[in-house]
Amino acid sequence: MLLNVKAYHKPRSIDEAFNIWSDHKDEAVLIAGGTNVALMKSHIPKHLIDLKSLALNDVKEKGNKIVVGAMIDIESFRKNQIIRKNFGDFFFKSFDDIASPQLRNMITIGGSVAAKVGWSDVTTCLLATESRLMTFGINGYQNINITEFNHLPRDKKPIITHIILNKEDFIYGFRRFTKSAFDISMVNVGIALKIESDIVKRSRFVIGSRPQMPDRFSDVEEGIENLKLDDNLPNIARNLVFEHFTGGSNYLASVEYRRHLASVLTERILTELGGV
Amino acid sequence: MKIKLTVNKKIHEVQIDPGEMLLDVLRRLGYKSVRRSCDSASCGNCTVLLEGKPILSCITFAASVDNCSIETVEGLSEKEELHPIQEAILEAGGSQCGYCISGLTLTIKSFLAENPDPDDKEIKKALVGNLCRCTGYESQIKAVRLAAEKLRDEKR
Amino acid sequence: MSERKEFNYVNKNEIKVDGSAILKGKPVYTDDFDFPDALHVVLVRSTYPHARIKSLDKQKALKVPGVVEILTYEDVPQKIFTKAGQGFPEPSPYDSFILSRKVRYVGDPVAIVAAETIDAAKIAASKVNVEYEKLEPVLDFKKATMDGAPVIHDEEGTKDIHDPSRNIASHYEMEVGNTDEVMGKCDYVVEKTYHINTQLHAMMEPHVSISYYDTNGRLVVITSTQVPFHVRRILSMIFDIPIRKIRVIKPRIGGGFGGKQAVHVEPYVTAVTLKTGRPARMIFERPEVSMATNIRHEMEFKAAVGASKDGTIKALSLDGLSNTGAYGEHALTVFMVAGSKTLPLYNKVEAVRFRGDVVYTNLPPAGAYRGYGAPQGLFALDCVIDELAQELGVDPLELKRNNSIKEGETSPIFKIMGEGTEGVEQIVRSCKLDECVEKGKKIINWDEKINRKEKPGKKVKGVGCALAMQGSGIAKVDMGAASVKVNEDGSVNLHLGATDLGTGSDTIMAQIVAETLDIPVKKVIVYSSDTDMTPFDVGAYASSTTYVSGNAVKKAAEKLKNRIKEKAAHYLNTDVDNIEVKNQHVLNKENGEKISFSDLFTKLFYTFEQEQLMASASYVGNESPPPYLATFAEVEIDLETGKIDVLKIVSVADCGTPINPIQAKGQLEGATMQGLGWALYEDVKYDGRGRMLTNDFFTYKIPSRMDYVSMECHLVDSYEPSGPFGAKSIAEIGIDTPIPAIANAIYNATGIRLREAPFSSEKLLMEILRKEI
């Protein structure tokens, strides 16, 4: 139970949602899947704005993009036929390891990004696919990337309405390391590679739960550009990650251990991708 | 505020606080089978079925499920009869203190509806969010296998 | 010595008597009881680890709508006591108040807030303004006794604290023979230091109590407790209410594991009811359960073992330090059990020593927890012997087995060490440890795997074993009582004080009555743990229920059976020696004449020698027969990440006759998993100010279903002559072995000895990297 809540809003349009949110600023919380409720300070929110009522949960193909309603739960998302057709097992398997069936029925894609928690496996995977966000804010709809969104100050933060994924010719891999199986990641790594005749043309290396927010590691990406996807690549990338990793320590793990794990996970993902 | 909630096919019009959780409202309505344990989305004891799917009632705002249909353990069996899943748990020794059992039973129900003949690995994965401190899990895994058998026999 | 009997209702997998109600989700737990008029109680808790309360301002909080009462140390009796629910007089120091002027850990209760709604109580609690004079805390138990360390218990009137000025709650030492001298003559001596962190009980049901006055003005407390009779006694003492005016009722309990063997909630709701006259209820939030009830005693042992070349263990020594946190609940007794329930296992020694201090710190108070010190002691003892095996170049299993206690043998420690006092002499009448070892080693394939040479790779496997013993109740201390009476339909009411906290004890007690009277289990109606309605029992702890309460139940049922036979003899006009009780009937063996229980009991009520047949009995153990256990673990280590996967854990126990094998195995499986969790995942952490960081299930991870690969638990054939139908205990022992077994397996796999439990993947990886360099 959250104390002090004055109203539970179920806006019927995105304008209405944003207006309520703007009106109450520090006293309002957006409810997407609701799974971050447990982390809320119970005394703070006075207005709850339920975005589920906006029915933003469809998955549509639009040209070379896939537009996904931000309120789709991750269980429906990972099982969606359009997603499976375009991303193979990437989301299907990566998201299957997150939390529990109960939570996967509740966690939404948009809510995962908006919560801005460092350990979000969802955000790591979306960054690896270079997905963008359709948001609604003071200037109406805007298409921004996740990192931009993460750096917006709280009072300027728009509402995420859609996730826009690219249909692209990449291969993807994701791994997480947890203490126990039903736990948040100690560290997670998402990698995307564009391979042309066995050569890495472009890549994305995302490391999350450092414990800071998931982020791209451009030094690693540049370091493997134009290298051959062969038996040596995993080790090269492993060393690059080890060298360029930045992170911190918390109750789950020390920064040294995280650096080590991120390197090992990188090597393992690339070994797996190389085998495909 | 007032919401309409269908619990185990019974309709309730209930006055709620806007910050109230489904767990609190269900217990207030007398559905005591819904257990409060961690209150932070980490144990699965408060699991109920929302439109047939397992969710955690401790982090679900009651206001968000207005006009929705909920199933709790009270709805599983009538009078003296036990549901085959409940029988299986008892026979396999899958319940010790029993505090986790309501949530577990509902998760099993939804899981077996999707996967009527699971292997142990699938069972463990499907129930990973239902913690139990008493049994060490082995007897509960046996119980799920037994329940699956009973439900398949029932269908025949 | 062992005898095997065929049973009708014992040693059978009877369905739990409370099973159907629980499965149907009936309102059976404390929090399920509705009291429309009840006040909701919330505690204001200390945010500092060590501080004196300078002032308390409740004015702002009292203005919150719905707030009815706020109580501080000025409003409650200042009677010193111990929250530990133990036999009287308690072996724990008196060092606690309901509310104190001084706070000693983050979470220590400061004020009691009662309001019409839980929300109002919470809001008001946040508005109680407490001004503290901060004191320097003791957060490292190894520094508690250092010169100049802040004194945690400097209050007046404490009782039985060993040395308050040096923060020593309790001290114990014992020695058989001259340990140093014998060690000096040994061919091999291994001495190592082992540290084992605390653990949270993490039972699913939080601590919860409801108090109210009944219509006759008596105080009734419905509570989730393992010790209803101790709760009544303690409430009577601290509030100065006669015992006769208090009734404590224990409904179904959602797990305890020792965590509910103390009065954590009851005094606070009672204080509100006494003050307001109204019902009061409180359920702890999970962080309160974690950091403001009891946790396990963190311990460190310097362990030494001396042996001759031929592998005979000649001397053992455990030198320990135990962290009891802010208060000394179970301080002395838990520490003693670390020796008394481990060292007798290796009884062939010429000399053995156990000693150490239990110290206060400004951390959450430690208390009773399944195993009760034995797992901490065994981690050191078993591992140091494992390390000796490595020095000797022998199979550790054989070394442990050859030196372990056998049927018909004894250990001087049984007599020397009891719980808080001297123990009792006893000969081991049943010990099937060898059978446990044989069965377990076959399942794990020990002989092949222990000498497996790993090929270099990214993953390595290893096996480890550990042997353990425990006890069955506290001899000459723990008492349980039961009464039985008959009904017209041939059913029997069983009333007993024993406390079923989810363990299934109500069921096995019904089975014992059923077996004695030869009636179906469903004809035994069990009612337990209500201080008004049932006879006394110390409660559910120390692995006592099956053995102590079970013997009381058997005795009562036997008495009743004799009364039934007497009456039947009159009715059938024969001598009582001709009477046999069989399948709900009484039979005249001479002529085959018989009468059913229901006919006989009906006649006894209305028409024939009218009398209510009933009987009662008490039992206190003269000894405490140990159950035995052999545990084997196979682990796989990822050398690149340090991840430890338990591929298989096998525990095989001798618990005498299992009254209900499926429930007995359930105890073993649950304890094994709890031990596995402690070994690998459950790691309590504090911030620099003594606040527990891992105080919820989001940060404190008990094992989930996917955190082990396979587990097998078995029971071997055994019969304990002094137990009810041959039974001994099984509830605790399973948690003693997983930590040493897994530590030994990690060594077998990697050559790395982890002497600090739990074993995190990070800790292991750092060792692996160090070894490579």
Describe what you observe in this structure.
Chain A is built from eleven helices and twelve strands. Chain A is of the alpha+beta class. In chain A, the strands form three sheets. In chain A, strands 4-5-8-6-7 form a five-stranded antiparallel beta sheet. Chain A has a four-stranded antiparallel beta sheet with strand order 9-10-11-12, sandwiched between helices. In chain A, helix 9 (218-224) packs antiparallel against helix 10 (233-244) and helix 10 packs antiparallel against helix 11 (255-275). The radius of gyration of chain A is 19 Å and the shape is globular. Chain B has 156 residues and is of the alpha+beta class. The mean pLDDT of chain B is 96. In chain B, helix 2 packs antiparallel against helix 5 (138-155). In chain B, strand 3 and strand 4 (53-56) form a beta hairpin. By secondary structure, chain C is α+β, with helices and mostly antiparallel strands. Chain C contains 19 helices and 27 strands. Classes of the chains: A alpha+beta (276), B alpha+beta (156), C alpha+beta (773). Chains in contact: A-B, A-C, B-C. Chain A binds chain C through residues 1, 3-4, 38, 42-43, 177, 179-184, 251, 253-254, 257, 260-261, 264, and chain C through 118-119, 122-123, 126, 640-641, 643, 680-681, 685, 693-694, 698-699, 701, 703-707, 760-762, 765-766, 769.
